[in-house]
Amino acid sequence: MYTTTNEDGILNNYAAEPKMYYAEYPAIWEQRKYVLQSLFATLIVTSFSCFGFSVS
User: Which pTM does this prediction carry?
Assistant: First the structure.
């Protein structure tokens, strides 16, 4: 931890900063997996919405 003290004697604590890294672009198989997940999520939301409208 990084700590400083001001002129009044008050401590000020700072958290340690994590090491920075850049995200990598997803591979083609990861992109396909994301597309399938989004299609499945869209199907679930659409079916719940249709069911809710039909019940009400």
Answer: 0.56
